[in-house]
Amino acid sequence: MSLEVMAKATAPIPLDVAFRVEPGELLALVGHSGSGKTTLMRTIAGLWQPAAGRVAVDGAPWLDTAARVNLPAHRRRVGIVFQTYALFPHMTARQNVMAAMDRPDAAEAERLLDLVNLHGLSGRKPAQLSGGQQQRVAVARALARRPQALLLDEPFSAVDRATREKLHGEIIALRAHLKMPVVLVTHDVNEAQLLADRMVVIEKGSVVRSGTTAEVMADPDALRAMGIREVAAMLPATVAEHLPDGLSRLVTATGPLFLPTVEGAPGTRVVVRIMAHEVILSRARPEGLSAQNILAGKVTRIVPGGGPGVMVHVAVGDHEILARITRRAAEQLHLQPGDTVHAILKSMSVARDHIARARDDEHAASRAAQ
Amino acid sequence: MDWTALWLSLRLAGWTVIVLLPVSVLMGRFMAIRAFRAKGLVEALVMLPLVLPPTVFGFYLLVAFGRNSPVGDLWQSLFGHQLVFSFEGLVVASIIFNLPFAIQPAQRGFEAIPAEVREAAACCGMSPLRSLWRVELPLAWPGLMTAMVLTFAHTLGEFGIVLMVGGSIPGETRTIAISIYDRVQAFDGQSAAIMSAVLVAISLFTIALTFWLSSRVGRRLS
Q: CATH number for the domain including A253?
């Protein structure tokens, strides 16, 4: 059940994009507003037709302008979560979910609402639900369609930060149940990095870079459009203990990481998004430093950028973190691939919403459901 | 009290509503959703009966429906009597002059539905007809109801066009509004007063009903 997408247009915006999403894979379309990412999503759903294009699921075309195939939206098995959720205001949560079923089944609707942690709220109308709860109904409704492709159009942008973190965790947990290709449209690089397997960065209707999330996020050129300060790496860690001073101790491959309270019981596996511009490198293990986190690692690559900076890739165990330092600093330290360095990170430089549960944490689903 | 005239007015209003309900749904939805080049012109044409003096409008309808007009001739050959000065003629005239009252509120009702809600209905697998029935009509119906109540009330009260197109034939084209005028002309102030009071009562009732129903809908949706 893979999803192939190709779209070309000159109006209303220039568009020339092609990508493919495998079953169970989450692909993030990342770009600024006006980049064309929402138009692509509408093309997949059948809400917009490009001048030339092809959308196919498992080889069966929904849209093929060359062959004059264009299924209307209601004939495409697509689940979509709109930015505004677009719930039917006159229906209860349960009726909203049932409205997307071929054969309305109240028990199945309840099961889906339970899956998105809305147990007991199925009789409420959208206006009686919070933004986060409405988003969950929208997800359940999209799944009720038994979609061959699931589309999420900026689904987290209309809720507050705390709710967004929670919803991110729920989507990660939900992914165990999703066998279809998933496309997430977002302008939030952090969100894309936390949730996506692969990323397609779009600017002015063209693909700037596509690849695995780790590849794209390590490529300053790819992120120039989104801002070089978005470059970051994901480091896996395990929650060890919550300390009385409000910090949590996490264990990584080469040392402890102290971060402001991380949610999750000891043993929870998480990934921490470490911003490249927040990392300081030192040859010797420094002492008398306020920064709490010092991870030993090995330089694997030094990639010069267009400006005064270089990107240093540092292997920490099996993973890499990125340090964006000045070319001058790299020269003063005589950094070479293979050198041992210490990466220094302030605890306070890691934002709460830059930490997410690891996808392969098998207990994540049950914990999220509590 | 001219019961025949009251009954005729109610029948006229009823037929007008029955014919205009589907028109208001289709046209109102079309005008709300579609953007096309001549939209402004179409909207202006629909609104025209609101601003034209009823006698002017009635005069043109009389010319358009009368003897030797294509519409009048066609009607004569189909039904064996002329369209003007008949109940059917009144219904046709009433449908046309009520277009703004039937379409405008319906259009506003459909415009109030976010485009994404319609798109969500399609992405839920609903055909356009099913989406109309299950999502759009339930959401737009306060507008549709306003349209129908206004049409009904306005038909009961219309005078100038009815007189021009229908005259004042008892049981055929003499509506209650014309009957009131006739009574006043005949110095029968008491009958005129009773019939006027009846019209006031009916109008008040229908407007109150609209407000009550739309407030109920408001509560249902919020």
A: 2.40.50.100
Interface test with B, best of A42, A71, A80 (most B CBs within 10 A): A80
Mean pLDDT estimate for chain A: 90
Q: Which residues pair with A20 in a beta bridge?
A: A4
pLDDT band at A160 (very low <50, low <70, confident <90, very high): confident
Does A369 have pLDDT greater than 50?
Answer: no
> What number does CATH give the domain B3-114+143-221?
1.10.3720.10
- CB-based contact B122 A46, cutoff 8 Å: yes
Q: What is the tens place of the pLDDT at every residue in B183-204?
A: 999 999 999 999 999 999 988 8
Q: What share of chain B is helix, strand, coil (3-state, %, to 5)?
A: 80, 0, 20
Same domain, A251 and A353: yes
* In a shared domain, residues A29 and A154: yes
Asked whether this complex has an ipTM greater than 0.85, the answer is: no
B139 to chain A, minimum CA–CA distance in Å? 7
User: Mean pLDDT in each 10-residue stretch from start to end of chain B (222 residues)?
Assistant: 90 96 95 91 91 91 88 89 90 93 94 95 96 95 89 90 89 91 93 92 86 72 55
Q: What angle do CA A355, A357, A358 make, to 5 degrees?
A: 115
Count how many pairs of residues, chain A against chain B, have C-beta atoms within 8 Å.
69
Q: Does some domain include residue A182?
A: yes
Task: Nearest by CB to B119, from A47, A127, A144: name it.
Answer: A47
Domain CATH code at residue A153: 3.40.50.300
Nearest CA in chain B to A75: B125
Q: Are the beta carbons of A87 and A98 closer than 8 angstroms? A: no
Which residues on adjacent β-strands are paired with residue A273? A234
* A80-120 residue pLDDT tens: 999 999 999 999 999 999 999 999 999 999 999 999 999 99
Q: Which residues of A sit within 8 Å Cβ distance of B?
A: 45-47, 72-74, 76-80, 82-84, 86-90, 99-100, 102, 125, 127, 141-142, 144-145
- Tell me the two tokens of residue A26: 């989450």
Domain count, chain A: 2
Name chain A contacts of B220, Cβ cutoff 8 Å. Answer: 90
Q: How many CB atoms lie within 10 A of CB A340?
A: 12
A225 plus A307 within the same structural domain: no
Six-digit token string for A312: 């240093």
